[in-house]
UniProtKB/TrEMBL annotation:
The keyword Transferase applies. It comes from the Bacteria. The keyword Transferase applies. The gene is purN. GO terms for molecular function: phosphoribosylglycinamide formyltransferase activity. N(1)-(5-phospho-beta-D-ribosyl)glycinamide binds at G11, T12, N13. The record marks D147 as: Raises pKa of active site His. GO terms for cellular component: cytosol. This is Phosphoribosylglycinamide formyltransferase. Its EC number is 2.1.2.2.
Length: 202
């Protein structure tokens, strides 16, 4: 299967996928990363892709007259690589109708909280501020809401009294990277069906 991975930052989730495919081999893993896309330049995520010899592309919102034009351009850039599955690994933009029309049902996101709790761009900070005793990460299909699509898998992480946002986020990311590698491999190798809010992996 062909994967396109979208990033906006350090790309450690992308790196986990790159390493897993490198270690197990694309055949055995069931997928190869054919391109990495971003909404901004100069991020470690793009450098990680380049080091792995994976083609990259950048589509910045500010380069387009409207949000819809950006969304269509991003969809075009992704479609050019003919992906079977698109993975948002720390991609910090909300895609629009055009993108979902083309990739809905095969667009997966990883979120650093136990959805439906703490959706949005500050899931780690919000869980900490709320005083949650456990939080975690969620891998889900992207739908037309924000972090509201059908849940595929979740991992639980305890919150410690001494945690600040970055310490907690780092501990979540240890679980998240493993979960994402496992889920993407399963979806790629086994195939799946989405039935309402349920995801059935064959
Ligand atoms: C991940 O925790 C992701 O869930 C969140 O931002 C983080 C991205 O980390 N949206 P990285 O860029 O993969 O290191």
């Amino acid at each position: 299967k062909r994967l396109v991975v979208l990033v906006s930052g350090s790309g450690t989730n992308l790196q986990a996928l790159l390493d897993a495919i490198d270690e197990t081999g694309a055949e055995a893993y069931g997928a190869e990363i054919v391109a990495v896309g971003a909404d901004r330049d100069d991020i470690e995520g793009l450098a990680r892709a380049e080091r792995a010899g994976v083609p990259t592309f950048v589509r910045k919102v500010k380069d387009y007259g409207t949000r819809e034009e950006w969304d269509a351009a991003l969809a075009e850039a992704v479609a050019a690589h003919e992906p079977d599955l698109v993975v948002s690994a720390g991609f910090m933009k909300i895609v629009g109708k055009e993108f979902l029309a083309r990739f809905g049902g095969r667009f997966v996101n990883t979120h650093p909280a136990l959805l439906p709790s703490f959706p949005g761009a500050h899931g780690v900070r919000d869980a900490l501020a709320y005083g949650a005793k456990v939080t975690g990460c969620t891998v889900h299909f992207v739908d037309d809401g924000v972090d509201t699509g059908p849940i595929i898998a979740q991992g639980v992480v305890e919150v410690r009294d001494e945690d600040d946002e970055s310490a907690l986020h780092e501990r979540i990311k240890e679980v998240e990277r493993r979960l994402l590698v496992e889920v993407v491999g399963l979806l790629a190798r086994n195939g799946y069906r989405i039935e309402g809010r349920k995801v059935v992996i064959q």
